[in-house]
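Memo to structure team: turn this sequence into structure tokens by end of day. - J.P.
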Amino acid sequence: MTPKTDQIYAAASGRPADFRFDSKVAQVFADMIARSVPGYGLTLDMIGVIAKHYVTDGSQCYDLGCSLGASTLAIRHNIVAKDTHIIGIDNSSAMIDQCRQNIADNPELPTVELRAEDLLDSQFGNASLVTMNFTLQFIAAEQRPSLLKRIADGMNEGGAMILSEKIALTGSMEQEVMTDLHHGFKAAMGYSEMEIAQKRQAIENVLIPDTVDTHKERLHDAGFSHVYLWFQCFNFVSLLAIK
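Reply from structure team:
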């Protein structure tokens, strides 16, 4: 199915309301994220590669903040381990409703369970792979360490966590350059200057980025033994953390 084109911020509306993952966003989210996050498609492809390498027989995989199921599907179609189960969790019922339409029943592939719930209330266990693809940045900063600790506690030894995030840069010049390049990417993807400006206003109090060093420190503190930066494009990164 061809995704609907994102035109949420195409009309002038004064100060936009804070960004929400509601039904309006769910309908265009596939287009929105592909045109807003540089390297997003490559990140999904590599999630499949990592899943093939780290998922073990009889274990569970979690896609936290699964949205429309892109990461869920990348995992599902690349697992070679036997008797595995995938759990996708998102606190937006609109996203989960759309995700159910994207995850077709297939007895030849690992089973998928979708849950509409707050990650702060979720339980984790027997996990060989966990993905958080641009999700942690929407959770209150003071709640991030305890959530990561609960995730790590629910993971098997040798399991992997993929954490993809928009990041803050430590130097003001670097932050300005990377932000300008990100906006240039969005313009190249067809967004107007007004759309870019309005989306930035809508999301600035909702998406709170951390530095790479903060992410690495939190993951180590949570109980992961090794943390690697495996991808970066402008101010977007993905980390691989090994339990």
